[in-house]
Amino acid sequence: MSSSAATDQFRQAFREEAREILVDLESALLELGEHCEDMELVGRAFRALHTIKGSGAMFGFDALAAFTHNLENAFDEVRSGRLAVTSELVDLTLAAIDHIREFIAESPQDYSIARNELVTRLLAMTASGCNIHAEKVAPPPLVSKSPPESGSLRFWTIHFAPGPQLMRGGSDPLLLIRELGDLGELTATPSMTSIPPLAELDPERCYISWDFVLRSDASFDTIRDVFIFVEDCCELSIQPQQKSVEVEADRTAAGLEDKRAARGGRRDYDLPDGNSSIRVAATKLDQFVNLVGELVTVQARLSELAVRRDDPDVSAVAEEVDRLASALRETSMNVRMMPIRGTFERFRRLVHDLARDLGKDVELTIEGADTELDKTVIDQLNDPLMHLIRNSMDHGIGMPQDRLAHGKPARANIHLSARYSGASVLISVSDDGRGIDAEAVRARAVERGLISADAQLSDAEIHALLFQPGFSTAKVVTDISGRGVGMDVVRRNVDKLRGSIDISSKTGQGSVVTLRLPLTLAIIDGLLVMVGDAYFVLPLADTLECIELSRAEIDAANGKHLINVRGKVVPYIRLREYFNVAATPPDFEQVMLVDTDDGCCGLVFDRVLGNCQTMIKSLGRVYRHVQAVSGATILGNGTVALILDPHRLVHECIRGIGLRVRGHPSLPEMAEPLQEQACK
Amino acid sequence: METSALNRKPAMAISTKNMDGARCIVLTDIVDIAQAAELKQALTEAIGSASRVVIQVSATTSIDITTAQLLWAGVSCSSLGGVEIVVEGPWNRQVEESLLASGITPLLQAMVQSSAGKGADVLVSRN
Which residues in chain A have their CB less than 8 angstroms from residue B73's CB? Predict the structure, then answer.
């Protein structure tokens, strides 16, 4: 790799890391707005700014470093108690974050005038804030800038053990120790016991750890700042000693111990470091997963071949390859899984800014932020969630005085949550606002000619109107919403992800929009089934159990697609009919019960062939309107199997019935009369 | 402007020669993580091929912790294999201060003394 390419790679890595730090900084600032006395939050913000400044300068973002320096100074003043946290400081810093994002953009715009103005305001605030505090409260500074008096000196014990990645990040413990030594009188006791024999030593890793005793007037934060760039890749503890005792490190004893260790004593250098991680380009991950997908396809061919040959040796190899491919597939999928926290946290800022602009008081609460989804899914979630939140803020949530008049707290709540459900993740955006005005939606739909004036629509059908392009009940178009674009974007993005949307709303109580999204878009565990000569794959996570359906049972149902499962009547869909498969059905067909958003339903096919790992291939743009099929896969014998999406298949069947016969009951409702009959 | 060690092109900071029956490793200029693999190889080869190894550090202007721990590991390895090893200074002042501040100097000195015997030239510290 050329030097220029390496530099570009480091700069790109900095950009990505800085964006993550900025999300954390935003969260800290917004929390700080609520708890302005929380010095831990102040420290978090300061460290984030310090890291961005330092790393930025290291990777050639000099203008960014200079700009961030002013913010860092302001927060240093806050840390020192000379400047108070005000909403103005928080807002100014949030605005500065936007500029920092622009600094690290691939094609940054020139906003130098706005930046200069912001810096001027910041400097003015810092100066005036300091004066006010000096006159009024004058709290004791955490860090004394004047020469320390002997009485203010303290002893600190510090343990510092660099992790495996510390050196590769460009840091050197010797420099950190020198910096630490500048704070006062330092006694260092290194431990060499973890250094392995020369032959086994990784030359680019630091194996030495240290215990220090520091005699200094420096504060905890000042000492911690020495390690600010390496905090994530080292063990660090900083403890104040209450008594001023002179501690003399017994270097000779430590040396003897180290020599004993070097001659064969106990070593702990080979202990794994569970927290280390590396940053990998998403394209490399995609390539990795694609290759694993190809491997899975080849493995299926090998298994097929083993069955045909009936050779025990080939079968043994095929089974071993199957086991390894399965483990590799699971690992590769896990590598792509990311917690949704980063996406959720970004919306704190959006809610804060919109609340301020709209004059509303809104808090955002988050639940299930550690729920993990495929990176591709997460990347495409940002826009739908943004539109849903904007809609809630603008339409759902009322002004504080209106809420109080309706017996609600002035402060509204928007709740973002994520949780697993089979092979899907459910992501909900709920609010405690006014709810959807079904009459207004209906009236608007009639006005636009989408439905007739006498149409009888269920709640779900009324809610579905909201996703029509350009549909809006807003009387005034604002810069936040009202053009009817947002919900259309939500539907399109969720469709692209092969997800589904559910809306529930109660007038006066609020709304919940739930997105059901697949955990992954790449490879799934499936059940291979056949209808006639056609192959289908059912996602294993959606299946419940398989039962037989005899010709007699079909005839007894008088043309109704219902089956009695241990006293419970369950509707079913015959894939033969749905996909127009012409072959004659066997005497006993198979019913796979699947768990869907619309309730339990059976899918009927001829026979089950067994489990299979399946790489999902897109059907392409031509078939993008086919809702019930999420993709296709190539089987070991070279034929193509369609991968069914049970949720959409069942939903589409219900909707098909609903469109033909207005007010047709849902699947559970369809089952109800026969359910009672079965009970009798 | 200071350049990060990982970005810097490797310099010819490590060379080896035979000297009075000993294998001599000469360190010059900056010896840090960028040269760590090279230094490890030089130490391994020297300890494996000679009964006496001299590491000249007087022309070194800067080292990092990887160099320090490689020296430690080299000295440990030589003592196990019966090889006499000498770290020949003086160190550059800045390097010496770093090693002293980190507490490594006394340990390294003790280890070299143990390896080389009392009569050997032990010049871990400055002169």
Answer: 195-198, 201
